Structures are given as structure tokens and as C-alpha cells.
Amino acid sequence: MSRSPGLPGAFALTGSASFSEFLAALHPDRLPVANTPGPDGGWAPHGTTIVALRTADGVVMAGDRRATMGNIIAQHDIEKVFTADDHSLIGIAGTAGLAVELVRLFQVELEHYEKIEGVPLSLDGKANRLASMLRGQLGLAMQGLAVVPLFAGYDLAGQTGRIFSYDVTGGRYEEHDFYAVGSGSSFARGSLKKLYRRQATAADSVRIALEALYDAADDDSATGGPDVARGIYPVVGTVTVEGSRILGDAEIGPLVGAMLESRHESASGDAREGA
Fold first, then answer.
1. Are 122 and 22 a contacting pair, CB within 8 Å?
2. Catalytic residue positions?
3. In terms of residue numbers, what domain contains 123?
4. Fewer CB within 10 Å, N or C, the chain?
């Protein structure tokens, strides 16, 4: 295959629709895996906690806004939930800088594949591709700079929402009903066990996700609760057959206010609907 004079050889490679493989050949230094920690790499900001739950018509994913650096709050308003493409969401826990880079590369990877092949990847294909990208970062994970995403999407073929979790080696596991990752995940999952309803609407599931994050923040210092004074609320995304989107603060604010009001009546959450 001929190429224009002056273009690097990577532009003439064939046989793969992977953008990350193209970037590895052209500029490997721009891949997240190529970044190496500084002398205080163990103190890189970390983000937690992410929850995801299936609804009657898709999936809801939500994440708190706190990033920590040891015992210090590094950022109060970090975003940890993103739309991966038109029908999927990705949430991140772990080393914040690497996680955000991974998300951006994954978004480009999915867009690049669709442009090259003319069709989007299947949901299983997207989940497998993310696992492969994580496997490439195993070296950094072994140094304590791990990224642990939570991936969810609407399976157009199966007409249902699906949730995938991962470990630092790139292992991919499909979860049923709900899941959580991050330092507050055990507390969030405990809350979801009591509140989750399989046939709940998306609106009800958003409220359940907010409750789970609040419960996690109540017991885990690395998970941040809603900050009404600053107007900082959890990032919440939904995905259905109609597509994926991130809800705005105008939608989340009133739900957080109602939740806090109910907590004033019963700090333990006993007065919550369905408890």
C-alpha cells in the first residue's frame, strides 16, 4: 500500500480497526500505559465510588465526586462517569489521571472502529476491548497505579441493559442486577441489596443509586457525599434503547434534596421507600 511522502509507516498499516494499536505504532508515549509515576507516584489522586444497576429499560450508573490523595481530599468535584458511546457508559475508580486518559482513549477507540468498519462494536466487543486495554496497563497496576472501571450499556441485540466489572489484570465479569467498585463499594453494595428492585423505572433507579452512594459516603472517608453548599452532586448517567446520557445538576439537585430531607427524618435510612 502506497503512502504519501513524509507520513510515518503507521499510516500504511492494515488489518486492524484498533485506534490504540495505531497510536502504539505512531506515538506509544501518548498511551496511558506509557506514563510512568514520579517519585511520589503512590500519592497520585484516586477516585471512588461507582455504582451501576439494571433497570426495567436499561442501566443507571452513578459516581461520587471526591478524589483523595492519601488522607487528603485532592478534588471535590471530579467526574467519574462518562458516556463511552451512544449506547454505553463507563465509570472509573482507581488512579484518577490514568483512568481519565483510559476513558478518553476508549471513547476514541469505539468511534474509530465504527468509522473504519462502518458499524459499531457489539456490547460484548466493547467490553472485551476495554479488558484488553486494561491488560496493557498491568505493569502500572503492579506499581500501585491501578485503574478499575465499571462498564455498562444497552445490548441492542438482546434488548436489555448489561453491566461488566473488571480486575486489574483485565479480567472481565458480567454482573447481574447491580454492582459497585471503589473503596466504598462494599457499603454501596450492602445498600443496593436492600433497595434494588429489578423492574424499577430509570427514575426510581436513579434515586436508589443516590441512596447507595450516600450510604457509602457515610462509612467510607474516600467517598464524598453531596455538597449542597457548593452545588456538587453525584454524576449520574442512564442508557436505554434511545441512547446514553449524563443527567444535569438541574435534574439531580431536587432528587438529592428529597433524599437529604428523608435522612433528616431517619438518619439510618429506615424511613426510605421500600426499606
1. no
2. 48
3. 19-32+42-265
4. N
* Cell (9 digits) for 36: 510512568
pLDDT tens digits for 212-227?
Answer: 999 999 999 999 999 9
Cell of 194: 436492600
Q: Which helix (H) or strand (E) holds 150?
A: strand 147-155
**Residue 1, in any domain of the structure:** no
The residue among 255, 214, 206 whose CA lies nearest residue 58 is: 206
Question: Grid coordinates standing for 97?
Answer: 489521571
Does some domain include residue 270? no
Let me know if residue 273 belongs to a domain: no
Nearest CA among 80, 108, 110, 76 for reference residue 95: 80
**The domain that contains 165 carries what CATH number?**
3.60.20.10
DSSP string, 68-113: EETTEEEESS---EEEEETTEEEEEEEEHHHHHHHHHHHHHHHHHH
Q: Which positions ≥6 away from 177 have C-beta within 8 Å?
A: 53, 54, 196, 198
3-state helix, strand, coil in the chain (%, to 5): 40, 25, 35
Quote the cell numbers at residue 44: 497520585
Q: How many domains does the chain have?
A: 1
Q: How far apart are CA 204 and CA 44, in angstroms?
A: 36
Tens digits of per-residue pLDDT, 52-110? Answer: 999 999 999 999 999 998 888 999 999 999 999 999 999 999 888 889 999 999 999 99
In this structure, the number of other CB atoms found within 10 A of the CB of residue 270 comes to 9
Residue type, 57: D
